[in-house]
Design a protein that fits this description.
By secondary structure, the chain is an alpha/beta fold. Helices cover 29% and strands 25% of the residues. Bound molecules: methylmalonyl-coenzyme A and adenosine monophosphate.
Length: 513
């Protein structure tokens, strides 16, 4: 029986000469042998814990090569990887650990006191630390382990990872992705984006979401290509490394920030063959400015935590032109349809709900069968919550009928700098604050983050609200990217005749706030 373990699939692309460099940081070089041996040590450590089948390994650590190795080791050991945004605070982490009940938790040593408390409450038996300078108890424990490991045999539909995505009700849901979901998408993107073994990927994305962990890392690993591994977006470092790179991925903010730097020009990009953008809409203006500055067209693609990548603008000119303002065509093997509210397919030019099907689509939300059922149609299509259109026009010119544009969302979601923020989660916290009658959280255009979170609050009669104190309270309770950049007090929220808050009216009122 062949092994569908995602690591085994990725490793099939590693170069024959394992002494070549796989990963480079400003300080260190890691060969393919290093990747194999170090992930084997960690996989042996995990295996030595004798965990039950399907056990979760929850990880909230700063980005480092060792954090990637821990992910690969979890795959190799056949366990389930659960990455957590480093911005999450205590109450958010308590929820995730309580819901996922991981057998292993790995955190930064600076957070150990509160993370271990949450882990204990969740019944987690094993807590380790891992810091970005290669210290911590995890590597210490793994040090004596064997450097060889036989990847645990997995079937394509065995669970590989759980990714929490915020919920419209304020409760996050764990999207369950299998080895097969991730491997099929990696293989499709490998071909569609023309990955090569002599590529050099500039990796600056965080590795706790689909974009940085799966799309970027899997692409380079499966191609046996080198990654330049930086802890975060840093424009100076990008200018330093880009002349040696061929591929870069980022959320739109990455491209906005590069363009804001006059030294970012054609010369810097001379070796680059592919700039990819996703996770949030790329403005036409950014697409055009980028083309003018570098002579290259950013390739925009579209995906979700639940589905990995769904559509992409063409890489190969033979497949078509890259069109700004669109997210391109359905990837090979992925089915995408646009339907009206009755499920009737829309013709080109007509707006409707985007639904998808394919080997990349997740099996459901962790321990939420009811929610899972609601999000799939009776004939097995996943409702993305995005609103889109085939064809139509973009930038004043007609778009081919097989190109998708995302024109809105039916879910109440804000995307700020590529991070999703669900207004309901923040409204629930604000509404609980003393003196607050009600609130509405909206997204408004922001030059750097694309959208910025803004809260509009109504005080109870006679109550005097202290905006700065409210902001401080929010900062202590939720990840910093969710904290409203502005908080406005008003007398009453605009409502329609059905009593529903008119967020579009608020967005209009505060759009230049
Ligand atoms: C940081 N801040 C933010 C954000 N990031 N505020 C709003 N939105 C953000 N995204 C705030 C912090 O709260 C802080 O404020 C101040 O900015 C500086 O923080 P710092 O960490 O230094 O910011 P930064 O390093 O400049 O980060 C901005 C960033 C980062 C580079 C845009 O957010 C980023 O890397 N985003 C990428 C997200 C991503 O990978 N998304 C993929 C999801 P204060 O000082 O007040 O505290 S995967 C996905 O969506 C799907 C599947 C897909 O299609 O890919
Ligand atoms: P996540 O829940 O983090 O997986 O975010 C998925 C959501 O990000 C999608 O449902 C879209 O709303 C949005 N998204 C991802 N890529 C794009 C894109 N290229 N253009 C517009 N929205 C996008």
């Amino acid at each position: 029986m062949s092994n569908a373990n995602l690591y085994t699939v990725l490793a099939s692309g590693f170069p024959a000469d394992r002494s070549q460099i796989a990963l480079e940081t400003p300080e260190l070089l890691y060969t393919w042998d290093d990747i194999d041996h170090a992930s084997a040590c960690l996989a042996n450590l995990l295996t030595s814990l004798n965990l039950p089948e399907g056990s979760r390994v929850a990880v909230q650590v700063e980005k480092s090569p060792e954090a990637l190795l821990l992910y690969l080791a979890t795959l190799r050991a056949g366990l389930v990887y659960l990455p957590l945004n480093t911005a999450y605070r205590e109450s958010e982490i308590s929820y995730f650990l309580g819901d996922a009940e991981p057998a292993v938790v790995v955190c930064s040593s600076k957070n150990l006191s509160w993370v271990s408390k949450a882990a204990a409450q969740a019944g987690t038996a094993h807590v380790y630390t891992l810091d970005e300078d290669r210290t911590g108890t995890l590597l210490h424990a793994a040090a004596g382990q064997s450097r060889s490991f036989k990847d645990v045999v997995r079937k394509a539909d065995d669970l590989a990872a759980i990714l929490y995505t915020s919920g419209t009700t304020g409760r996050s849901k764990g999207a369950m992705l299998s080895h097969g979901n991730l491997a099929s998408n990696a293989q499709v993107l490998h071909r569609y984006w023309g990955w090569r073994s002599d590529d050099v990927l500039l990796h600056m994305l965080p590795i706790f979401h689909v974009h940085g962990l799966f799309v970027a890392s899997h692409g380079a690993l499966l191609a046996g290509a080198r990654m330049i591994w930086l802890p975060k977006l840093d424009v100076e470092q990008a200018l330093h490394y880009l002349p040696r790179c061929t591929v870069m991925m980022g959320v739109p903010t990455y491209y906005v920030r590069l363009l804001a730097e006059a030294r970012f020009n054609r010369k810097v990009c001379a070796r680059m063959r592919l700039f990819i953008s996703g996770s949030a809409p790329l403005l036409m203006e950014t697409f055009n400015d980028f083309r003018e500055r570098t002579g290259q067209s950013i390739l925009e693609r579209y995906g979700m935590s639940e589905t990995v990548m769904l559509t992409s603008n063409p890489y190969d000119a033979a497949d078509g032109e890259r069109r700004g303002g669109t997210v391109g065509k359905a990837l090979p093997g992925v089915q995408v349809r646009v339907v009206d509210d009755n499920g009737v397919e829309q013709g080109a030019g007509d707006i409707g709900n985007v639904q998808v099907r394919g080997p990349n689509v997740f099996s459901g939300y962790w321990r939420m069968p009811e929610k899972t059922r609601e999000e799939f149609t009776s004939d097995g299509w996943f409702r993305t919550g995005d609103v889109g259109r085939w064809g139509g026009e973009s930038g004043g010119a007609a778009v081919p009928d097989d190109y998708l544009s995302i024109v809105g969302r039916s879910k109440d979601l804000i995307i700020s700098g590529g991070y999703n923020v669900y207004p309901k989660e923040i409204e629930l916290i604000i509404d609980e604050m003393p003196g607050v009658m009600e609130s509405a959280v909206i997204g408004v255009p922001h030059p750097d983050f694309g959208e910025a979170v803004v809260a509009v609050v109504v005080a109870r009669e006679g109550a005097a609200l202290d905006v700065a104190a409210m902001q401080a309270e929010l900062k202590s309770r939720i990840a910093n990217f969710k904290v409203p950049k502005q908080l406005h007090l008003i007398d009453q929220l605009p409502r329609n005749t059905m009593g529903k808050v008119q967020k579009n009216v608020l967005r209009e009122s505060y759009k230049t706030a």
